[in-house]
From TrEMBL:
Pfam families the record matches: HisKA_3
Protein source organism: Streptomyces mexicanus
All residue ranges annotated as the Signal transduction histidine kinase subgroup 3 dimerisation and phosphoacceptor domain in the record: 207-272
EC number of this enzyme: 2.7.13.3
GO CC annotations, alphabetized: membrane
CDD domains, per database record: HATPase_UhpB-NarQ-NarX-like (cd16917)
PANTHER family, alphabetized: NITRATE/NITRITE SENSOR PROTEIN NARX-RELATED (PTHR24421), NITRATE_NITRITE SENSOR PROTEIN NARQ (PTHR24421:SF10)
InterPro entries: HATPase_C_sf, Sensor_HK_TwoCompSys, Sig_transdc_His_kin_sub3_dim/P
Protein name in UniProt: histidine kinase
Enzyme class: transferase
Keyword field: ATP-binding, Coiled coil, Kinase, Membrane, Nucleotide-binding, Phosphoprotein, Transferase, Transmembrane, Transmembrane helix, Two-component regulatory system
Coiled-coil intervals: 168-206
Amino acid sequence: MTRTGEDHRAAGTGPWWWARWRSAVLDGSLALVSAAECAAEGVPFARDAGVPMAVGVVFGLLAGSVLLVRRRWPIAVVLVGIAVTPAQMGFLMGIVGLYTLAACELPRRIIGALAGMSFLGTMIVTFVRVGQDMARGDFTLGDWFVPFAAVTTSLGLTAPPLLLGLYVGARRRLMESLRERADSLERELQLLAERAEERAEWARNEERTRIAREMHDVVAHRVSLMVVHAAALQAVARKDPEKAVKNAALVGDMGRQALTELREMLGVLRSGDGPEQSRRARDAGSVPVAESVPLAAVGAAAAAAASRAAGGPGGEGPCLAELEELVGQSAAAGMVVDLSVEGEARSYGPDVEQTAYRVVQEALTNVHKHAAGAKTHVRLAHRGSEIAMQVENEPPPEPASAESAGLPSGGNGLVGMRERVLALGGVFVSGPTEAGGFRVSAVIPAP
């Protein structure tokens, strides 16, 4: 298993300058073998130098044990190896020292200079020793053998450890760079995951707001009209039976439509499917149950149901051409509504037309709730690059009629209208008038 750079650095639990205990054990073993080798080679060195044998052995032990610090001071190890080359000792120390030097992160000129010194020292000593052996008659080869033996021996003791160390050092630096890249990628992935979670949370909140807004559009207007018609039915039940029957039929139709739309939304909530599948499941008499419901599917079902609530085809949403029908529904509920249109009517984008329709619809619903019986003026203006609408009601004839109607208000209607208009870059203003009524105005850019 590979580890990232932070884990690799955190894994350094060895003593002193060793990153791991196994590195310390390896260096200790190499130093022990090198010390034994140099001590054994110190015996002939002491005999040739004319010093006591114990001095040669101690000198060899001290020289060989320098290999213990090869990771901390590789230059010192190589210099000691070059220094003891004339004594013909420290071959293991020279090989391991050159390997360690080449694998370290040192300038190439220092590595090349020390390797060259080691090569020259080994070549000179070998040349002298082989020449002496040839002079004593130990070898009967030609004179060409002395330089050949010196060069090949020097190359054999210098080139392999140097090249291997350069390769291992390059691979080690490559692995370190890969670990750093893995660390940076891991941090970037964490940041991306956090941002994705934030965006997902934001999207969920936006979708919840959309669902609440669409369900409010579906339910609030129809139920408000139902309550108004029911109140009118109660008032004329004895005086005008024919009108009472007409109002009762209107209440029934609106109730059935509201129930149909709510069933479609609840079907999506239960099944997690789109509106078409939930409708087919409802027609079949069974609704499959899923473990989770995507908010986007519920929001789409709510939007489609809200579209059908306004009489538009599923998925397209209401349009300004249906505004007269909307005003007619309020007029049928007993409201006196005056609709005026200024400018040349033209088609707009679906979002613009749906938002304009919803603003007028919610404003009329608020009049039913809070100012029953008040005369209302609906104005629509088609301008060059925008569309403006205004719904203003006069003071209600009886201030207590709003409470008597029994229409609850959650205070979300104006908030939903403002959100819709501002989402399209428009301007929304609402508030009471000086005459005691209420005015809702909105301007939506329509390039």
